Amino acid sequence: MQSTTLILLLGFMATAAFYLGRGRSLALVGGPGHGLALHSLPGYYGYYVAIWVVLPALALLSAWVLLEPKLIVALVVNGLPEAYRNLPAGELNLLVNNIQNLAAGDVISVAADDMLQDAATQFNAYAAKSRQVLAVLALGVAGLGGVHAWRLINPDLRARNRVEGVIRWFLIAASSIAIFTTIGIVLSVLFEAIRFFQKVPATEFLFGLNWSPQTAIRADQVGSSGSFGAVPLFTGTMLITAIAMVVAVPVGLMTAIYLAEYSSARVRGVAKPLLEILAGIPTVVYGFFAALTVAPWVRQAGESAGIDVASESALAAGLVMGIMIIPLVSSLSDDAINAVPSAMRDGALGLGSTRSETMTKVILPAALPGIVGGILLAVSRAIGETMIVVMAAGLAANLTANPFEAVTTVTVQIVTLLVGDQEFDSAKTLAAFALGLMLFVVTLFLNVIGLSVVRKYREQYD
């Protein structure tokens, strides 16, 4: 039985259990007219039985999914000839991988002889048998759980407390997944970054002025430099981000002010959806626009003014990135402005303030926490952007503050270092994790600043 079919059957059983549990609770007190004799609402008794149907079956299903592959592989390996069972661990893993690929109908790295064919057939037979056993056990456990909960129903059963307790633990589990996922991401990057700093001094990485992460695989290899000074990457990232913010913040904020306070409902209904379209355009399309339209235009404008502009410049990438971020700044600022209590707006107007004075003296200061949060989120988006920089600013790690020259960013170098087959023992590959750790630190720093600003002004206007 397929997993989808099994889950649908469990859903059907849970629905039936709900109505059976609800009906039994009402029957025990003499019908719907005597529902007040129950400790909880009748629906809670139905949910109680449905939970006993679903949770044990899902627990069994989760455990089976985790253990099944290892068990099947162990059974298949035990069925191989002794010569294959005694292979070294690496060769045995490769053999098992070929058997699994052959069983799935995929390409394998060796010729499919009779031994592999028999092992793949046995693998599929074990998998089919496992699905049958799982279906029987899961449906059986679900049925036993439903019968057990159905028999426990009585008017004094605190069904609401038990159902809400299960929901509370479910919410705690969902929150824990998000927290542990974040911790896992940070630790995975941190451990690899520590390995990098064991090979390259942290002072060279943080303060070095030359980025050329070509490391030698052999002692006589030519062209290896092994320079890991990341200052040019940080400078390029900040330069492009600054250009993007110069474009996005004024335009986005002024757009939000106009749509929130000055435009008519008809204009707002048309302009806001059109503005939001910019947020749905893929970044690779912005990259094409930057490389084919904006970059040539910037170069031609610079030549007309007698300025030498590179074919791939930070200015072109920053301008397009700023256009991409405008909807983010505008939308969040618009929400912050609309969240200001109407009493503050009406009070300022009632005291004789003009609409512009009300906006600058009352609404903007009150909405400043939300606006700052939106700007910091936009900065994080700009720092993490990759495609536009790759296509419009290039890969050259130049240490410069000139927006007319080609630069690169941290995210672009992370992608470049991890493209293709890489050895995760080399400093070149591990440098990507050190750069990722720096992005985490920068993002944390921006969040701390944002929280401090929000806390300061929230105390004043709450």
Unreliable parts = none
How would you sum up the global shape? flat
Give the topology string: H per helix, E per strand.
HHHHHHHEEHHHHHHHHH
Query: In CATH terms, what is the fold-level topology of the largest domain?
Result: MetI-like fold
Largest sheet: 2 strands, antiparallel
How helical, in percent, are the residues? over 70%
Measured distance between first and last alpha carbons: 58 Å
The first-level CATH class of the largest domain is given as: Mainly Alpha
Number of strands: 2
Provide the β-strand percentage band: under 5%
- For the record, what is the CATH homologous superfamily label of the largest domain? MetI-like
- CATH architecture identity of the largest domain: Orthogonal Bundle
Count of separate DSSP helical elements: 16
Domain module count: 2
Structural class: mainly alpha
What is the spatial order of strands in the main beta sheet? 1-2
The radius of gyration is 31 Å
The averaged pLDDT comes out at 83
